[in-house]
């Protein structure tokens, strides 16, 4: 089961709930990655979500990051993809979607397509990538995943007020929203591309 990684976080992130909830009660920028990553070369189509979110400033975000991400950074980097308090789903890799509400109090959903190197995000059961035509099931309107490395679940939090937190679900329990057709949970097993077609036994 994938969780937040106690060995891959900054000091002020406190993990709880079986390491599925990350909280920061200190006014410093802190972050954490997941214990597993998805490699672009491995293929597969994966879904995960954040059922509980409270962000406290416009630099806080939930989503994904690669191994080069500095865990104190916001979304202004090609090493990150996520939803911020400002309602922006994007990264320095070249995409932004405005017009979304603050993710706090909503369920943030991500569909990661490593077959086509695309990603979609939405809040609750809303439209993907804030577009009426975007659809991960039909590979329409997805954003190109920047770079060529693997991607981890990630969150960045800073306690300007209260204690911002984010709970993630990689598939350990039932999802709040429906998984897009053709996708599986992040934790579902998929053979690496190099192993497909082989019989192991």
Which properties best describe this structure?
eight-stranded mixed β-sheet; 201 residues; mainly beta; single chain; Jelly Rolls
Overview of the structural elements:
This protein is mainly beta. The chain has a single domain, classed as Jelly Rolls (Sandwich), CATH 2.60.120.920. Helix content is 0%, strand content 36%. It contains no helices and 14 strands. The chain has strands spanning 4-9, 13-16, 21-24, 30-38, 45-54, 61-65, 80-84, 89-90, 108-113, 118-123, 143-144, 151-157, 165-169, 184-185. Strands 2, 3, 5, 9, 10, 11, 13 and 14 form an eight-stranded mixed β-sheet that branches. It has a six-stranded antiparallel β-sheet with strand order 1-4-12-6-7-8, with no helix packed on it. Strand 2 (13-16) and strand 3 (21-24) form a beta hairpin.
Radius of gyration: 16 Å
Per the CATH scheme, the topology name is: Jelly Rolls
How many domains in all? Answer: 1
Order of helices and strands: EEEEEEEEEEEEEE
Q: Count the E strands.
A: 14
Mean pLDDT: 88
- Residues in helix, %: under 10%
User: What is the assigned CATH homologous superfamily?
Assistant: SPRY domain
Number of helices: 0
Distance between the termini: 24 Å
Low-confidence segments, ≥5 residues, pLDDT <50?
Answer: 190-201
Q: How is the main sheet built?
A: 8 strands, mixed
CATH architecture heading: Sandwich
Strand percent estimate: 35-45%
């Amino acid at each position: 089961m994938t969780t937040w990684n106690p060995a891959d976080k900054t000091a002020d992130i406190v993990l709880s709930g079986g390491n599925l909830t990350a909280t920061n009660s200190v006014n410093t920028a802190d972050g954490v990655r997941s214990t597993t990553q998805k490699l672009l070369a491995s293929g597969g189509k994966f879904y995960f979500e954040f059922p509980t979110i409270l962000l406290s400033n416009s630099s806080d975000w939930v989503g994904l990051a690669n191994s080069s991400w500095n865990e104190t950074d916001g979304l202004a980097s090609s090493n990150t993809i996520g939803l911020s308090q400002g309602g922006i789903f994007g990264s320095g890799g070249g995409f932004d979607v405005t017009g979304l509400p603050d993710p706090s109090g909503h369920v943030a959903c991500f569909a990661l397509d490593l077959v086509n190197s695309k990603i979609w995000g939405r809040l609750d059961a809303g439209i993907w990538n804030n577009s009426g035509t975007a659809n991960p099931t039909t590979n329409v309107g997805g954003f190109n995943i920047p770079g060529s490395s693997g991607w981890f679940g990630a969150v960045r939090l800073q306690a300007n007020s209260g204690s911002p937190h984010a709970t993630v679900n990689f598939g350990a329990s039932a999802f709040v929203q429906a998984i897009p057709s053709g996708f599986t949970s992040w934790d579902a097993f998929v053979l690496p591309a190099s192993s497909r077609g082989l019989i192991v036994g």
